[in-house]
Amino acid sequence: MKYYKVVTYGCQMNEHESEKLCGILEKFNLIQTDDESLADVIVFNTCTIRENAERRAYGNIGALKKLKKANKEKIIAVGGCLTQQKGKAQELKEKFPFIDIIFGTHNLSEFEQMLNRRIETGKKFIDVSTDEYKMPCQVPVKRSTYPSAYVNVMYGCNNFCTYCIVPYVRGRERSRTPEEILVEVQGLINEGYKEITLLGQNVDSYGKDLNPKVDFSSLLKMVASIDGKFRIRFISNHPKDVNEKLAETIKNNEKICNSIHFPVQSGSTNVLALMNRRYTREDYLKKIKMLRKTVKDIAITTDIMVGFPNETEKDFKQSLSLLKKVKYDGAFTFVYSKRSGTKAFDMDGHIDESIKKERIVKLVEVQNNVNKKLAKKYVGKTVEVLVDEFNTACGYYMGRDERGKAIHFSSDRNVVGEFLQIKITRADGISVYGEIV
Ligand code: 5AD
Ligand code: SF4
User: Fold this and answer.
1) At what angle do helices 244-252 and 281-294 cross, to 10 degrees?
2) What is the distance, to the nearest Å, from the Cα of residue 283 to the centroid of all Cα atoms in its chain?
3) Which ligand 1 atom minimizes the distance to the CA of 265?
4) What is the C-alpha radius of gyration for the chain, rounded to an integer number of angstroms?
Protein backbone atom coordinates (compact mmCIF):
# COMPACT_ATOMS: atom_id res chain seq x y z
CA MET A 1 0.00 0.00 0.00
CA LYS A 2 1.38 3.38 -0.96
CA TYR A 3 -1.31 6.00 -1.65
CA TYR A 4 -4.58 7.21 -0.14
CA LYS A 5 -7.37 9.60 -1.03
CA VAL A 6 -10.00 11.18 1.22
CA VAL A 7 -13.09 12.71 -0.38
CA THR A 8 -14.91 15.45 1.57
CA TYR A 9 -18.55 16.45 1.08
CA GLY A 10 -19.78 18.71 3.84
CA CYS A 11 -19.26 21.60 6.19
CA GLN A 12 -16.09 22.79 7.94
CA MET A 13 -16.70 20.17 10.64
CA ASN A 14 -16.68 17.50 7.92
CA GLU A 15 -13.61 19.09 6.30
CA HIS A 16 -11.77 19.05 9.62
CA GLU A 17 -12.72 15.41 10.19
CA SER A 18 -11.20 14.65 6.78
CA GLU A 19 -7.99 16.24 8.06
CA LYS A 20 -8.16 13.76 10.95
CA LEU A 21 -8.76 10.83 8.59
CA CYS A 22 -5.71 11.97 6.58
CA GLY A 23 -3.72 12.12 9.83
CA ILE A 24 -4.68 8.52 10.63
CA LEU A 25 -3.90 7.32 7.10
CA GLU A 26 -0.44 8.88 7.24
CA LYS A 27 0.26 6.75 10.32
CA PHE A 28 0.14 3.86 7.84
CA ASN A 29 2.94 5.61 5.89
CA LEU A 30 0.58 6.31 3.02
CA ILE A 31 0.94 9.33 0.72
CA GLN A 32 -1.98 11.53 -0.31
CA THR A 33 -3.05 11.50 -3.95
CA ASP A 34 -5.93 12.90 -5.98
CA ASP A 35 -5.85 9.99 -8.36
CA GLU A 36 -8.43 7.35 -7.47
CA SER A 37 -6.90 4.73 -9.72
CA LEU A 38 -3.59 5.14 -7.86
CA ALA A 39 -5.02 5.20 -4.33
CA ASP A 40 -4.78 1.96 -2.34
CA VAL A 41 -7.18 3.31 0.27
CA ILE A 42 -10.09 5.62 -0.60
CA VAL A 43 -12.22 7.13 2.14
CA PHE A 44 -15.51 8.90 1.41
CA ASN A 45 -16.30 11.28 4.25
CA THR A 46 -19.97 11.83 3.45
CA CYS A 47 -22.51 14.52 4.31
CA THR A 48 -26.27 14.20 4.46
CA ILE A 49 -27.49 17.74 5.13
CA ARG A 50 -29.25 17.98 1.76
CA GLU A 51 -30.20 15.43 -0.83
CA ASN A 52 -27.62 16.66 -3.35
CA ALA A 53 -24.70 16.01 -0.93
CA GLU A 54 -26.03 12.49 -0.49
CA ARG A 55 -26.55 12.01 -4.23
CA ARG A 56 -23.00 13.14 -4.96
CA ALA A 57 -21.59 10.57 -2.54
CA TYR A 58 -23.70 7.77 -4.03
CA GLY A 59 -22.53 8.76 -7.53
CA ASN A 60 -18.85 8.85 -6.56
CA ILE A 61 -18.97 5.57 -4.65
CA GLY A 62 -20.85 3.85 -7.50
CA ALA A 63 -18.24 5.06 -9.98
CA LEU A 64 -15.58 3.07 -8.10
CA LYS A 65 -17.10 -0.29 -8.90
CA LYS A 66 -14.92 -0.77 -11.99
CA LEU A 67 -11.68 0.23 -10.25
CA LYS A 68 -12.42 -2.14 -7.39
CA LYS A 69 -13.19 -4.94 -9.81
CA ALA A 70 -9.88 -4.36 -11.56
CA ASN A 71 -7.98 -4.21 -8.28
CA LYS A 72 -9.57 -6.17 -5.42
CA GLU A 73 -6.78 -5.07 -3.05
CA LYS A 74 -8.04 -1.48 -3.11
CA ILE A 75 -9.68 -0.63 0.23
CA ILE A 76 -12.82 1.49 0.05
CA ALA A 77 -14.17 3.04 3.25
CA VAL A 78 -17.29 5.16 3.68
CA GLY A 79 -17.86 7.26 6.80
CA GLY A 80 -19.40 10.56 7.85
CA CYS A 81 -22.90 11.81 8.48
CA LEU A 82 -24.64 9.78 5.78
CA THR A 83 -23.60 6.41 7.20
CA GLN A 84 -24.57 7.52 10.70
CA GLN A 85 -28.18 8.02 9.61
CA LYS A 86 -30.58 5.23 10.55
CA GLY A 87 -30.65 2.43 7.96
CA LYS A 88 -28.15 4.07 5.61
CA ALA A 89 -25.15 1.85 6.40
CA GLN A 90 -27.16 -1.23 5.50
CA GLU A 91 -28.51 0.45 2.37
CA LEU A 92 -24.97 1.38 1.28
CA LYS A 93 -23.76 -2.16 1.88
CA GLU A 94 -26.54 -3.61 -0.26
CA LYS A 95 -26.17 -1.07 -3.03
CA PHE A 96 -22.37 -1.17 -3.12
CA PRO A 97 -21.27 -4.61 -1.85
CA PHE A 98 -17.68 -3.77 -2.78
CA ILE A 99 -17.29 -1.26 0.11
CA ASP A 100 -14.78 -2.61 2.64
CA ILE A 101 -15.45 -0.48 5.73
CA ILE A 102 -18.56 1.49 6.66
CA PHE A 103 -18.05 3.63 9.77
CA GLY A 104 -19.79 6.65 11.33
CA THR A 105 -19.13 10.08 12.77
CA HIS A 106 -19.44 8.58 16.28
CA ASN A 107 -16.42 6.32 15.89
CA LEU A 108 -14.14 8.19 13.50
CA SER A 109 -11.53 8.12 16.30
CA GLU A 110 -11.33 4.33 15.82
CA PHE A 111 -10.63 4.42 12.10
CA GLU A 112 -7.02 3.34 12.66
CA GLN A 113 -8.13 0.12 14.38
CA MET A 114 -10.80 -0.44 11.71
CA LEU A 115 -8.29 -0.13 8.88
CA ASN A 116 -5.93 -2.52 10.70
CA ARG A 117 -8.79 -4.96 11.15
CA ARG A 118 -9.58 -4.85 7.42
CA ILE A 119 -5.90 -5.34 6.51
CA GLU A 120 -5.43 -8.22 8.96
CA THR A 121 -8.66 -10.14 8.32
CA GLY A 122 -9.34 -9.17 4.70
CA LYS A 123 -13.03 -9.03 5.69
CA LYS A 124 -15.56 -6.32 4.89
CA PHE A 125 -17.55 -4.90 7.80
CA ILE A 126 -19.94 -2.21 9.03
CA ASP A 127 -19.07 -0.50 12.30
CA VAL A 128 -21.42 2.44 12.70
CA SER A 129 -21.35 2.74 16.46
CA THR A 130 -24.50 4.22 17.89
CA ASP A 131 -23.01 4.18 21.39
CA GLU A 132 -21.83 7.34 22.98
CA TYR A 133 -19.95 9.59 20.57
CA LYS A 134 -16.22 9.29 21.02
CA MET A 135 -14.66 12.73 20.62
CA PRO A 136 -11.90 12.44 18.04
CA CYS A 137 -9.57 14.76 19.97
CA GLN A 138 -6.47 12.60 20.30
CA VAL A 139 -6.39 11.74 16.61
CA PRO A 140 -3.45 13.05 14.52
CA VAL A 141 -4.46 15.86 12.16
CA LYS A 142 -3.00 16.48 8.72
CA ARG A 143 -3.89 20.13 8.27
CA SER A 144 -4.64 21.41 4.79
CA THR A 145 -5.74 24.98 5.41
CA TYR A 146 -2.53 26.82 6.45
CA PRO A 147 -2.36 29.63 7.62
CA SER A 148 -5.77 28.88 9.14
CA ALA A 149 -6.60 25.95 11.38
CA TYR A 150 -9.82 24.48 12.67
CA VAL A 151 -10.22 23.57 16.32
CA ASN A 152 -13.29 21.71 17.57
CA VAL A 153 -14.73 23.19 20.73
CA MET A 154 -17.83 21.02 20.84
CA TYR A 155 -19.63 18.30 18.97
CA GLY A 156 -23.32 17.60 18.36
CA CYS A 157 -26.45 19.70 18.62
CA ASN A 158 -29.47 19.89 20.93
CA ASN A 159 -31.56 22.35 18.95
CA PHE A 160 -33.70 20.13 16.75
CA CYS A 161 -34.60 22.62 14.04
CA THR A 162 -37.34 20.71 12.25
CA TYR A 163 -35.55 20.60 8.87
CA CYS A 164 -32.19 19.46 10.18
CA ILE A 165 -30.64 16.00 10.25
CA VAL A 166 -27.56 17.01 12.28
CA PRO A 167 -28.85 16.16 15.79
CA TYR A 168 -29.72 12.67 14.52
CA VAL A 169 -26.31 11.96 13.03
CA ARG A 170 -24.08 13.80 15.45
CA GLY A 171 -25.94 13.28 18.70
CA ARG A 172 -26.21 15.61 21.68
CA GLU A 173 -23.89 18.49 22.59
CA ARG A 174 -20.56 17.63 24.17
CA SER A 175 -17.92 20.26 24.91
CA ARG A 176 -14.18 19.88 25.11
CA THR A 177 -12.60 21.38 28.21
CA PRO A 178 -11.05 24.85 27.89
CA GLU A 179 -7.69 23.39 29.00
CA GLU A 180 -7.65 20.92 26.12
CA ILE A 181 -8.69 23.58 23.60
CA LEU A 182 -6.05 26.04 24.84
CA VAL A 183 -3.30 23.42 24.56
CA GLU A 184 -4.32 22.73 20.96
CA VAL A 185 -4.49 26.43 20.04
CA GLN A 186 -1.14 27.18 21.70
CA GLY A 187 0.41 24.30 19.75
CA LEU A 188 -0.96 25.68 16.48
CA ILE A 189 0.34 29.18 17.21
CA ASN A 190 3.75 27.69 18.03
CA GLU A 191 3.67 25.93 14.66
CA GLY A 192 3.03 29.25 12.87
CA TYR A 193 -0.73 29.19 12.24
CA LYS A 194 -2.18 32.71 12.03
CA GLU A 195 -5.91 32.10 12.22
CA ILE A 196 -7.88 29.78 14.47
CA THR A 197 -11.48 28.91 13.66
CA LEU A 198 -13.33 27.47 16.65
CA LEU A 199 -15.85 24.92 15.44
CA GLY A 200 -19.13 23.79 16.91
CA GLN A 201 -22.62 23.14 15.58
CA ASN A 202 -23.86 25.75 18.01
CA VAL A 203 -20.95 27.45 19.76
CA ASP A 204 -23.29 29.49 21.97
CA SER A 205 -24.08 26.31 23.88
CA TYR A 206 -20.39 25.74 24.58
CA GLY A 207 -19.59 24.61 28.10
CA LYS A 208 -23.14 24.10 29.37
CA ASP A 209 -22.32 20.42 29.88
CA LEU A 210 -19.00 21.03 31.64
CA ASN A 211 -18.40 21.03 35.36
CA PRO A 212 -17.73 23.80 36.28
CA LYS A 213 -19.78 25.44 33.50
CA VAL A 214 -17.98 27.81 31.12
CA ASP A 215 -19.60 29.99 28.49
CA PHE A 216 -18.43 30.66 24.96
CA SER A 217 -17.48 34.27 25.61
CA SER A 218 -15.19 33.17 28.45
CA LEU A 219 -13.61 30.58 26.18
CA LEU A 220 -13.05 33.23 23.51
CA LYS A 221 -11.33 35.48 26.05
CA MET A 222 -9.06 32.64 27.15
CA VAL A 223 -8.08 31.87 23.55
CA ALA A 224 -7.52 35.58 22.88
CA SER A 225 -5.15 35.80 25.84
CA ILE A 226 -2.65 33.48 24.13
CA ASP A 227 0.42 35.48 23.03
CA GLY A 228 1.23 36.13 19.40
CA LYS A 229 -0.34 37.78 16.37
CA PHE A 230 -3.23 35.67 15.16
CA ARG A 231 -6.93 35.90 14.39
CA ILE A 232 -9.83 34.10 16.01
CA ARG A 233 -12.99 33.14 14.15
CA PHE A 234 -15.85 30.88 15.18
CA ILE A 235 -18.81 29.07 13.64
CA SER A 236 -21.75 28.68 14.04
CA ASN A 237 -23.93 30.77 16.31
CA HIS A 238 -27.65 30.43 16.93
CA PRO A 239 -29.51 33.77 16.88
CA LYS A 240 -31.65 32.76 19.87
CA ASP A 241 -28.49 32.48 22.02
CA VAL A 242 -26.32 35.35 20.79
CA ASN A 243 -26.13 37.98 23.52
CA GLU A 244 -24.49 41.28 24.45
CA LYS A 245 -21.74 39.50 26.32
CA LEU A 246 -20.61 37.88 23.09
CA ALA A 247 -20.79 41.19 21.21
CA GLU A 248 -18.76 42.92 23.95
CA THR A 249 -16.21 40.11 23.86
CA ILE A 250 -15.76 40.56 20.11
CA LYS A 251 -15.47 44.30 20.53
CA ASN A 252 -12.95 44.18 23.38
CA ASN A 253 -10.53 41.63 21.98
CA GLU A 254 -8.31 42.69 19.13
CA LYS A 255 -7.66 39.11 18.02
CA ILE A 256 -11.33 38.19 17.64
CA CYS A 257 -12.44 39.08 14.11
CA ASN A 258 -15.27 41.58 13.74
CA SER A 259 -17.36 39.01 11.99
CA ILE A 260 -20.21 36.66 12.82
CA HIS A 261 -22.08 33.95 10.96
CA PHE A 262 -25.68 34.51 12.00
CA PRO A 263 -27.95 31.98 10.25
CA VAL A 264 -31.49 33.32 9.92
CA GLN A 265 -33.01 30.51 7.77
CA SER A 266 -36.17 32.51 6.92
CA GLY A 267 -37.39 36.09 7.09
CA SER A 268 -40.89 35.02 8.10
CA THR A 269 -41.89 34.58 11.73
CA ASN A 270 -44.46 31.96 10.71
CA VAL A 271 -41.87 29.84 8.95
CA LEU A 272 -39.37 30.34 11.78
CA ALA A 273 -41.96 28.92 14.19
CA LEU A 274 -42.50 25.88 11.96
CA MET A 275 -38.73 25.46 11.85
CA ASN A 276 -38.55 25.53 15.67
CA ARG A 277 -35.96 28.31 15.54
CA ARG A 278 -37.30 29.92 18.72
CA TYR A 279 -36.96 33.54 17.57
CA THR A 280 -39.15 35.85 15.50
CA ARG A 281 -38.13 38.10 12.63
CA GLU A 282 -38.30 41.02 15.08
CA ASP A 283 -36.12 39.27 17.71
CA TYR A 284 -33.59 38.54 15.02
CA LEU A 285 -33.51 42.10 13.72
CA LYS A 286 -33.08 43.40 17.27
CA LYS A 287 -29.99 41.21 17.67
CA ILE A 288 -28.59 42.49 14.38
CA LYS A 289 -29.06 46.03 15.69
CA MET A 290 -27.34 45.13 18.96
CA LEU A 291 -24.39 43.50 17.14
CA ARG A 292 -23.95 46.48 14.83
CA LYS A 293 -24.23 48.96 17.66
CA THR A 294 -21.70 47.18 19.86
CA VAL A 295 -19.15 46.05 17.29
CA LYS A 296 -18.24 48.78 14.81
CA ASP A 297 -18.43 47.61 11.19
CA ILE A 298 -19.07 43.96 12.12
CA ALA A 299 -19.46 41.66 9.11
CA ILE A 300 -22.61 39.58 9.29
CA THR A 301 -23.20 36.51 7.11
CA THR A 302 -26.12 34.13 7.08
CA ASP A 303 -27.73 30.90 5.91
CA ILE A 304 -31.20 31.16 4.43
CA MET A 305 -33.42 28.63 2.68
CA VAL A 306 -36.47 28.70 0.43
CA GLY A 307 -39.28 26.21 0.08
CA PHE A 308 -39.72 25.03 3.66
CA PRO A 309 -43.10 23.24 3.98
CA ASN A 310 -46.00 25.72 3.99
CA GLU A 311 -43.82 28.70 2.98
CA THR A 312 -46.28 31.03 1.24
CA GLU A 313 -45.44 33.66 -1.35
CA LYS A 314 -45.84 36.23 1.42
CA ASP A 315 -43.39 34.35 3.67
CA PHE A 316 -40.92 34.14 0.83
CA LYS A 317 -41.20 37.89 0.16
CA GLN A 318 -40.29 38.43 3.81
CA SER A 319 -37.05 36.54 3.22
CA LEU A 320 -36.32 38.77 0.22
CA SER A 321 -37.07 41.90 2.21
CA LEU A 322 -34.87 40.69 5.07
CA LEU A 323 -31.89 40.28 2.73
CA LYS A 324 -32.47 43.80 1.41
CA LYS A 325 -32.83 45.21 4.89
CA VAL A 326 -29.90 43.53 6.62
CA LYS A 327 -27.51 43.71 3.64
CA TYR A 328 -25.50 40.69 4.71
CA ASP A 329 -21.81 40.52 3.87
CA GLY A 330 -22.56 37.10 2.44
CA ALA A 331 -25.41 34.61 2.40
CA PHE A 332 -25.43 30.87 1.82
CA THR A 333 -28.69 30.23 0.06
CA PHE A 334 -30.36 26.82 0.05
CA VAL A 335 -33.39 25.05 -1.31
CA TYR A 336 -35.17 23.12 1.45
CA SER A 337 -34.39 19.43 1.13
CA LYS A 338 -36.56 16.73 2.71
CA ARG A 339 -34.57 14.73 5.26
CA SER A 340 -36.13 11.53 6.46
CA GLY A 341 -36.34 11.26 10.25
CA THR A 342 -36.78 15.01 10.79
CA LYS A 343 -40.07 16.62 11.89
CA ALA A 344 -40.45 18.65 8.70
CA PHE A 345 -40.30 15.48 6.63
CA ASP A 346 -43.70 14.46 7.97
CA MET A 347 -45.30 17.91 7.70
CA ASP A 348 -48.10 18.60 5.25
CA GLY A 349 -47.67 21.40 2.75
CA HIS A 350 -44.45 20.45 0.97
CA ILE A 351 -43.68 22.93 -1.81
CA ASP A 352 -43.44 22.06 -5.50
CA GLU A 353 -39.89 21.77 -6.84
CA SER A 354 -40.71 24.28 -9.61
CA ILE A 355 -41.78 26.91 -7.07
CA LYS A 356 -38.67 26.24 -4.98
CA LYS A 357 -36.54 26.81 -8.08
CA GLU A 358 -38.25 30.11 -8.91
CA ARG A 359 -37.76 31.27 -5.33
CA ILE A 360 -34.08 30.38 -5.07
CA VAL A 361 -33.31 32.23 -8.32
CA LYS A 362 -34.94 35.39 -6.94
CA LEU A 363 -33.24 35.02 -3.57
CA VAL A 364 -29.79 34.60 -5.11
CA GLU A 365 -30.36 37.61 -7.35
CA VAL A 366 -31.24 39.87 -4.44
CA GLN A 367 -28.18 38.80 -2.46
CA ASN A 368 -25.95 39.18 -5.52
CA ASN A 369 -26.99 42.79 -5.84
CA VAL A 370 -26.22 43.37 -2.18
CA ASN A 371 -22.80 41.69 -2.63
CA LYS A 372 -21.96 43.89 -5.61
CA LYS A 373 -22.85 47.09 -3.76
CA LEU A 374 -20.77 46.03 -0.76
CA ALA A 375 -17.79 45.19 -2.98
CA LYS A 376 -17.92 48.71 -4.47
CA LYS A 377 -17.88 50.21 -0.98
CA TYR A 378 -14.50 48.55 -0.40
CA VAL A 379 -12.78 50.57 -3.14
CA GLY A 380 -10.35 53.12 -1.69
CA LYS A 381 -10.09 51.42 1.71
CA THR A 382 -6.86 49.96 3.08
CA VAL A 383 -7.33 46.74 5.02
CA GLU A 384 -5.16 44.19 6.77
CA VAL A 385 -5.27 40.90 4.93
CA LEU A 386 -4.10 37.45 5.99
CA VAL A 387 -2.92 35.75 2.79
CA ASP A 388 -4.50 32.32 2.26
CA GLU A 389 -3.25 31.15 -1.10
CA PHE A 390 -2.00 31.84 -4.57
CA ASN A 391 -4.84 31.15 -6.98
CA THR A 392 -3.25 29.66 -10.06
CA ALA A 393 -6.50 29.92 -12.04
CA CYS A 394 -6.69 33.72 -11.82
CA GLY A 395 -3.01 34.48 -11.15
CA TYR A 396 -3.66 36.46 -7.96
CA TYR A 397 -2.90 35.96 -4.31
CA MET A 398 -6.04 35.78 -2.20
CA GLY A 399 -6.34 36.87 1.39
CA ARG A 400 -9.12 37.90 3.73
CA ASP A 401 -9.60 40.95 5.88
CA GLU A 402 -10.94 40.48 9.39
CA ARG A 403 -14.49 40.85 8.05
CA GLY A 404 -13.85 37.74 5.95
CA LYS A 405 -13.94 39.50 2.57
CA ALA A 406 -11.78 37.77 -0.05
CA ILE A 407 -9.30 40.23 -1.57
CA HIS A 408 -7.15 39.57 -4.64
CA PHE A 409 -3.79 41.15 -5.36
CA SER A 410 -0.45 40.52 -7.07
CA SER A 411 2.92 39.94 -5.49
CA ASP A 412 6.28 38.98 -6.94
CA ARG A 413 7.20 36.90 -3.89
CA ASN A 414 5.38 34.20 -1.96
CA VAL A 415 3.32 35.94 0.71
CA VAL A 416 1.08 33.07 1.86
CA GLY A 417 0.66 33.19 5.63
CA GLU A 418 1.63 36.88 5.95
CA PHE A 419 -0.42 39.79 7.25
CA LEU A 420 -0.29 42.59 4.66
CA GLN A 421 -1.85 46.01 4.24
CA ILE A 422 -3.78 46.06 0.97
CA LYS A 423 -5.27 49.12 -0.66
CA ILE A 424 -8.41 48.21 -2.59
CA THR A 425 -8.24 49.65 -6.09
CA ARG A 426 -11.23 48.15 -7.88
CA ALA A 427 -14.29 45.96 -7.61
CA ASP A 428 -15.43 43.64 -10.38
CA GLY A 429 -18.88 42.28 -9.62
CA ILE A 430 -18.59 40.78 -6.16
CA SER A 431 -14.78 40.42 -6.30
CA VAL A 432 -12.38 43.05 -5.05
CA TYR A 433 -8.78 43.68 -6.07
CA GLY A 434 -6.02 45.69 -4.48
CA GLU A 435 -2.32 46.43 -4.15
CA ILE A 436 0.18 45.82 -1.38
CA VAL A 437 0.78 49.12 0.44
N1 5AD B 1 -32.57 21.63 3.52
C2 5AD B 1 -31.91 22.73 3.09
N3 5AD B 1 -30.98 23.36 3.80
C4 5AD B 1 -30.67 22.86 5.01
N5 5AD B 1 -29.80 23.28 5.94
C6 5AD B 1 -29.86 22.42 6.98
N7 5AD B 1 -30.77 21.46 6.74
C8 5AD B 1 -31.30 21.71 5.52
C9 5AD B 1 -32.28 21.09 4.74
N10 5AD B 1 -32.95 20.02 5.15
C11 5AD B 1 -28.97 24.49 5.80
C12 5AD B 1 -29.26 25.47 6.92
C13 5AD B 1 -28.03 25.37 7.77
C14 5AD B 1 -26.97 25.06 6.75
C15 5AD B 1 -25.72 24.47 7.32
O16 5AD B 1 -27.61 24.14 5.89
O17 5AD B 1 -29.37 26.74 6.34
O18 5AD B 1 -27.75 26.56 8.47
FE1 SF4 C 1 -21.70 18.86 8.28
FE2 SF4 C 1 -24.31 18.56 8.61
FE3 SF4 C 1 -23.14 17.64 6.40
FE4 SF4 C 1 -22.76 16.44 8.73
S5 SF4 C 1 -24.69 16.60 7.66
S6 SF4 C 1 -21.19 16.96 7.21
S7 SF4 C 1 -22.77 18.16 10.16
S8 SF4 C 1 -23.29 19.78 7.00
Assistant:
1) 20
2) 25
3) 17
4) 22
Q: How far apart are CA 388 and CA 1, in angstroms?
A: 33
d(CA 80, CA 74): 20
User: 307-347 pLDDT, tens per residue?
Assistant: 999 999 999 999 999 999 999 999 999 999 999 999 999 99
Rounded-to-5 percentages of helix, strand, coil across the chain = 35, 25, 40
Determine the residue of 271, 305, 342, 367 to mutate for testing ligand 1's pocket, defined as the one with the most ligand atoms within 8 A of the Cβ atom.
305
Residue pLDDT, tens place only, 95-109: 999 999 999 998 999
CA–centroid distance, residue 48 to ligand 2 (Å): 6
Is the preceding omega at residue 236 within 30 degrees of 0, hence cis?
yes
Q: Are 65 and 72 in contact (CB under 8 A)?
A: no
CA–CA separation, 116 vs 93, rounded Å?
20
Q: Which has the closest alpha carbon to 238: 207, 200, 269? A: 200
